[in-house]
# Entry
Amino acid sequence: WLTKVEYGSPRWQVSFAVAQKDCYSSYTDGATNTETCFDGGSYYTTSKGSDRSGSSSNYALRAYWQPEETGIIPALQVGYDWSTVDDDDNAGSTEATAAWMMGFMWRDAFIDGNTAGIAIGSRQHATEVHAETSSNDDDADDNFVWEAYYDFKVSDNITVTPAIFGGEDTYDGNSNGSDDIFGALVKTTFKF
# Structure
């Protein structure tokens, strides 16, 4: 289930959400044992905390604010998420996760009708890991991700958006030795 409470106006808003994800005990499906739980695998940013199985309680705080007039002061959006997991008591099982973000957006940036934006944050990652030995205790390396974009309005019907994005310590479970990412894209939107 998911419950969300929000309060605000067209210029600002705050919200809080709670979700409970339940899973059933392992059951046998033919010759294999299967769980109904979500296993995040490499979704979390620590090699020791990459296993997430078990029911979880999940929470999210959000807020945004925008100025009355466009200008140098940007619209602001912030968010913080955290979860507690009923782990399976195996070494390395994720017991808690967290994520955060901040976004800044400037309307009419440089030219009327254009928009610029920057976002920074930390993708969801294990923050508490079950440890059977002290050598396995790992609070998870935090990670940092970012993106920047500019919406250039070519006409009333066409918008071109170049964007760049990157991240540090974004463990992905691969053995290529690199936990950093960088990329770019150009999106064209047509409205009819």
